[in-house]
Amino acid sequence: MTKGTVVKSTGSFYHIKTPEGKIFKGKIRGKFRIKGLKTTNPVAVGDIVHFKPLDNETVLITHIEPRKNYLIRRATNLSKRYHILAANIDRVFVLYTPAYPETLLPFLDRILVSAEAFDIPAVMVINKIDLFKDDPENRRKIERFKEIYGKAGYPVLEVSAKTGENLDELKRYMRDKTSMFTGNSGTGKSSLINAVAGLDLRTKEISGVHRQGQHTTTFAEMHPLPFGGNIIDTPGIRAFGTIETKPQELGDYFPEIRRWKPECKFNNCIHVHEPGCAVIPQVDNGNIAPERYNSYLDILEEISGENSPYR
Ligand code: GDP
Ligand code: ZN
Do 251 and 209 reside in the same domain of the chain? Predict the structure, then answer.
């Protein structure tokens, strides 16, 4: 039996890298399915697969090892089918820029909920700090950001893909891990991948006209890091869809709410207006950032809404 990691998917076949560093072109036959989940692509970048020779050029994937986690998004907005973006991720880096473009925090909170639900540790990364040195307004936003996510328990880094500032610290978090960057378009995901991996991936400088024809497909690819570990690049993917979360479970995906939940009077407390709730006082005394609590309430409303399938 030969084993390897899927490092690239092109739609019709998969690049498989063995521990020795050899690359094979893998195909699948028939169907692999995730129980209870309709997917458009059965094999994902990051999958560990077993294979056997098919002909001179190609190998046949015979088995996918159980995934420690995987990121999915709906194939289309209302579709019941899912697209697996990547599997077996050790760490997700969530990018923030206070401006150029401005990142909205509720968007990041949704990314974090997915990461928590998949049990993937997240690190917050403020990028483009070179732009804000003499900009008190945006520096204030950065300081507030650090406070909000620091209280939630996430590491927060300040870096610049452009100047290389603090990239060593970022690399320390990436070393020997399989990582992924998420965040708004334009916050610098490609630039950071290039900077840490010594690559030359496309960045947004390419003109709009060019980009249309060039990178309309969105296949993920895993790149090795020169200092150990891998980065999975998912072009065009800013975030991943929230999985099916029950209102009762949502608090488990906010570390700072999860921490206080055991002290709530009712064990099915959803921390909205229940008597004896241990979470609400922490919001009132500032231990839990109101921005995060508001995101919690918004998502809670979304998943408990009339039309929610998870009700
Ligand atoms: P992506 O959409 O998240 O992949 O963002 P890109 O990597 O394409 O970057 C978007 C734009 O921001 C490009 O013009 C980059 O050159 C620029 N950029 C990325 N990182 C930095 C940074 O640290 N400082 C500055 N000043 N610009 C940056
Ligand atoms: Zn409570």
Answer: no
What's the CATH number where 190 sits? 3.40.50.300
Query: Is the C-beta atom of 9 inside 6 A of ligand 1?
Result: no
Q: Whose CA is nearest to atom 24 of ligand 1?
A: 128
CA of 21 to the centre of ligand 1 (A): 31
Instruction: Report residue 239 as tokens.
Output: 């975030």
Q: Are residues 206 and 259 in the same domain?
A: no
pTM surpassing 0.85? Answer: yes
CB distance 3 to 64 below 8 Å? no
**SS3 at position 96:** strand
- Distance between CA atoms of residues 302 and 311, nearest Å: 10
Is residue 161 domain-shared with residue 84, that is, in the same domain?
A: yes
Ligand 1 pocket mutation pick from 97, 190, 191 by most atoms within 8 angstroms of CB: 191
We report the CATH number of the domain holding residue 52 as 2.40.50.140
The alpha carbon of 275 and the centre of ligand 1 are apart by a number of angstroms equal to: 47
Q: Does the Cβ of 185 fall within 6 Å of ligand 1?
A: yes
Query: Do both 133 and 173 map to the same domain?
Result: yes
Domain that holds residue 227: 77-233
**Amino acid type, 172:** R
Q: What is the CATH number of the domain that holds 253?
A: 1.10.40.50
- The DSSP-derived string for 31-54 is ---BTTBEES-SS-TT-EEEEEE-
**Which of 42, 66, 90 represents a domain boundary (last residue)?**
66
Ligand 1 mean position, distance from CA 110 (Å): 22
**The pLDDT value given to residue 56:** 81
Q: What residue type is assigned to position 134 of the chain?
A: D
- What's the confidence (pLDDT) of residue 216? 41
**Cα(302) to centroid(ligand 1), Å:** 32
37-65 confidence digits (pLDDT tens): 666 678 899 999 999 999 888 999 999 99
Ligand 1 atom nearest to 194, measured from its CA: 7
How far is the first Cα of the chain from the last one, in angstroms, to the nearest whole number? Answer: 45
